[in-house]
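Field reference: sequence -> structure
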Amino acid sequence: MSEVFECEIQARLRDVNLGGHVDNVEAIRILDEARILFLRFADLGTGAGRPGLLGGVPDGVAELV
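Structure field:
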């Protein structure tokens, strides 16, 4: 791949458990949040006038599940 999509995700208090480690469930949640940001904002060259795979959906649609 020649291009990289970067995003910043704010760390939350719940991301770290009492042992000071990131819980597996929270790690997956962070990856899922990054995936949603990618789908919304990555410049994929679709030509739809808006970035991301969700650029071609109507304005009232925010996410696809």
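Note: The CA atoms of residues 54 and 61 lie 8 Å apart.
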